[in-house]
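Teaching note: in complex prediction, the entire set of molecules is handled at once rather than each chain in isolation. The prompt given to students was simply: 'Predict the structure of this complex.' The entities are:
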Amino acid sequence: MNTSKIPALGYALLGLLMKPSSGYDLRKVFSSTSMKTYSDSPGAIYPALRRLQEQGLIRGKVEEGSGLRRRQIFRLTSKGLAELKKWITSPITREDLESGLRTVMLRFAFSETAVGAAASLEILKSLEAALQPHLQTMREQLQAMKAIAPTSGRLALECGIRSYEALFAWAHYAITVYEKQMQGGPS
Amino acid sequence: MNTSKIPALGYALLGLLMKPSSGYDLRKVFSSTSMKTYSDSPGAIYPALRRLQEQGLIRGKVEEGSGLRRRQIFRLTSKGLAELKKWITSPITREDLESGLRTVMLRFAFSETAVGAAASLEILKSLEAALQPHLQTMREQLQAMKAIAPTSGRLALECGIRSYEALFAWAHYAITVYEKQMQGGPS
DNA sequence: CGCCCCATGTAAGACGTTACATGATTGA
DNA sequence: TCAATCATGTAACGTCTTACATGGGGCG
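The expected output is the structure of the full assembly:
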């Protein structure tokens, strides 16, 4: 009943809260770093934090100390960490690819810290496996489209294919990085 | 007052409606082709169509003919075509890149049919120009991150960089395609 | 006749956006 | 003291998701 469904922003917050932070800290991460795809507006973040707390995934504590501004620091509960791990380690489906890669990359970015390097490798291999048939269908679509569609439509599809090819190459590269790293010293 | 703000789905519908279609036809496009990023659920499409009609951008006509199922065919009004063109030809900003490329690619995909090959070329050049500084800041972020972040976080950022590099290469390629085409015969 | 696909729609709820509001603290 | 920033929130609004509902028409 509790963790019914968590939106992408919720998982982004859970991942970032592996390092305890205030709502304002989190907003700054979203607004200043490369995570601009997520909303940095207070109207999104604070309600999301409240929901996560109601689900028992995080816990906030108002910071004590005399001359300080009121500031609530949130941190993961054990239940929250478990949920984060579960999300990260769930296998990558073709829907994950079709609905854009934001979610997948978010999972990967958090994987090493939250679960471990083995989990990162697992995601990469799962991604590689899901990518191959997906690329195949896109190439077929391109062939089917070649006759009818205008140049711009065809090129747009080619762009998608190229970016998935780049993703594939990256996954390959990342796998070698991890395999080398774990061979040397898996810590 | 009228065309206050149109969400991405609305523009996707406008673009597809350059070819008159029913709501069901549009749903099939979203569910069957590579446009799976947009919702194919009736609860999204039909209200969106109604809104576009209320704004005077499209007009629906119930299909006549004896033995037919009730079927409403929508088509663009001149105002709708104008709005579509305006959207397509507006310059590409860095926010367009930061918030993902779905929108930009959608504009490009429709550009040739809606406005003309010159507009497609314009988008590509605008994209190329916006891409360069964006890539630069991403590379700087990677450098800044190298010391602190875990491998997976760094690799995730590298993935983003690589995909933007692929986009850049694609834009270059697409520009040559268009320049060759217009040189030969701009129709 | 019953089943599945066509084709359209609605209702409840969740979520994000935008805009506003509040107060405390720092620095000029 | 005045402005800017820190830090948190709330309210209205629009949109998407999910699920349900409705009926016609082809097909075995």
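Point out the following to students. Chain B touches chain A through 41 residues (CB under 8 Å). Chain B is about 65% helix and 5% strand.
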